[in-house]
Design brief:
With 557 residues, the chain is α/β, with parallel strands linked by helices. It is 26% helix and 13% strand. The strands form four sheets. Strands 1-2-3-7-8-9-10-11 form an eight-stranded parallel beta barrel. The protein has a five-stranded antiparallel beta sheet with strand order 12-13-14-18-16. It has a three-stranded antiparallel beta sheet with strand order 4-6-5, with no helix packed on it. Helix 8 links the parallel strand 8 and strand 9. The chain is globular. The two termini are 20 Å apart. Bound molecules: alpha-D-glucopyranose and calcium ion. The site of alpha-D-glucopyranose (GLC) has 9 residues, from loops.
Amino acid sequence: MSLAPDHETVVSATSAEWWRQAVVYQIYPRSFADDNADGIGDFRGIASRIDYLAALGIDAVWLSPFYPSDLADGGYDVIDYRDVDPRIGTLSDFDTLVDALHAHGIRVLIDIVPNHSSNRHRWFLDAVAAGPGSPARERYHFYDGTGPDGSEPPTDWRSLFGGPAWTRVSDGQWYLHTFAAEQPDLNWANPEVREYFLGTLRFWADRGVDGFRVDAAHMLAKDMSRPLPTQAELEAHPFDGTHPTWDRDELRDIYAEWRTVFNSYDPPRTAVAEAAVHSSRVPLYASPQTLGQSFFFDLQLGDYDADSFRRIIDDCLSVAAASGSSVTWVLNNHDTIRHASRYGTPFPGYGPGGEPTRKHGGDWLLAGGDPVLIDAARGLRRARAATMLLLALPGSAYLYQGEELGLQEVAEIPDAARQDPSFFRNRAIEVGRDGCRVPLPWARTGPSYGFGAGGSHLPQPLWFGHYSVEAQEGDPASTLALYRSALALRRELQTGEVLEWAPSGRDDVLSFRRPNGWRVVSNFGAEPYPLPAGEIVLTSGPLTGTLPGETTIWLRS
Ligand code: GLC
Ligand code: CA
């Protein structure tokens, strides 16, 4: 598989196309490092760990939302898009952090949440106060209810976090929220909303931000013409650009306007869409005329299985190439059970209709998260092998804080300590995403395992110290050492965005070559595989004269 000729050459780190094969490390600010011992991670905490980030060898960080928020959805309920939550820091702390990251050669992406604001955003408070028919209500989706006294919601639509997608205000009107009730959907048909976000992009780009991760990018545009469809009609509607609430064609115009803003900077600001869409629809988001890149969640949702990895890799490479983009590979983020646990669970991970159930916590968590039912060692072995495979693919790699420590999902969070709205709204079918958001362990011991001098806003389990940075530092067999070596070698070896499959003679062994003499062999099976010729530069696990099962090696020739 090869891409356009101009992408077969090396893209230098200073080029406008730096993002094409960048390694981006996601920081969930509230859970990374806590400077002032209040149990909540902050900008100064991140700044105090810059040497760690630099030594890891990443190209950029993506900061999940740090804006003022009531934390109804972990910060994805934004009260002010142009400020910093006082618990996380100040705008001046932000500037200091960006400067320090830049000084270490690390670029900065931030999360932008355009589909919905917080219900405590000034606009929403104004809309509630101003009453039905007011211009303030036009910034959101307010409608009268149905039924004799309007006491039934306008439609039977469901929120993605469970429960109804409409909530009633005291004057009797209802507002739409695709997610939690504290996250009213903004009305993107209103030019004022569009202008406000263009200004917000400029606000942050002017402060030196290098790019944006666009939350729920496929949801902004909605056809709200009456009569509104039912939930069953929404589900039956084709997802072809004409769906009333999902992945509509007019998003292209919205993101083309964003692109004009991005390209007014030098180098152009970048963006990556979080868009849950069919691969045929990815170009709308990933083209150079719109956001430029879109996440590919296929590996994250799929099994640890050679066949599906190979199919997904081919599909994603061709879709990205057709978009004029590169693939963004992902195995972990703040929304999904950590891959070291996911790959160790005996549960199938699919519901009766074949739909993946691991997302947002999975069937093992739902069944109680009993550690006895999970093979953590195997999960970690597979996770290391899968990560080494991912890091050898053409395109950019998104890593999530803590995966470099081989962290397992934290299942043992008491109900009373949980924070995720998907737990509260959807209790019967998901446990929520708190288990991958537990503050990082930096030290073997201490009140919050080195996260800070105080506690931790989500409880850390007793086994956390074992996975700490301190416990792994200096251990060449540690997962931290593996990530550091892999990222350093990737810098040396990575050239053009080209991958050529090599026959392995076995269905459960994937083998491919990259330019520059880089060769990758990944044994997904149980049987050992003969070691290929060449200089072995990295392995995801110990070798035994052969390549053992669930192990990946990199070779150089
Ligand atoms: C995205 C975020 C997720 C959030 C949701 C609503 O999916 O990744 O964390 O809950 O959008 O903003
Ligand atoms: Ca703090």
